[in-house]
Amino acid sequence: DVKVTQSSRYLVKRTGEKVFLECVQDMDHENMFWYRQDPGLGLRLIYFSYDVKMKEKGDIPEGYSVSREKKERFSLILESASTNQTSMYLCASSGRIYQRNNEQFFGPGTRLTVL
Amino acid sequence: QKEVEQDPGPLSVPEGAIVSLNCTYSNSAFQYFMWYRQYSRKGPELLMYTYSSGNKEDGRFTAQVDKSSKYISLFIRDSQPSDSATYHCAEGGATNKLIFGTGTLLAVQP
User: Strand B54-58 and strand B71-76: pairing?
Assistant: First the structure.
């Protein structure tokens, strides 16, 4: 059974803290993605990575950075958390573009609250 | 204009109703069209995909694509309370990225 796991389901942090969200996939996928999901705004892409140590900005990268040191792991970093980063964060992975029509597999999400 | 526009909902229907969920897109380069279903407190899961105009059926679900109008739909027949979820349309092209609509929250009342 394919699986994408995220380190925490719920997280509460204070303004200004550095926050790490971890994602691990066991499908040997090349591509990994971080989204945030907010009511009425849908899934918005923050960053994605198509290979180890490679990354590209998505639609809303401001205030975030990422790290991909190993193929199976993709980390999202909030350098200095702010209240407007309170959201649901979803990690996803996918194989090469010709595999399964680019299907992305999602983790269960991390609900982050910044106080 | 957003690349993908989706009816915002929420949508509430009685059990057994036919549900129609719709999206429009603006980028002619899109080649793949998908519907993801997301239950409460879970991540989205692929429900259906297609890459050609026309209809694709899977049980009670039918995905319809009209490339000339840049319009995609998901129909659910004989809707059940277990169909209550958020439905996201998604489009992809030659890159690794998918573009998602805003999602429609569907509630099927028993």
Answer: unpaired
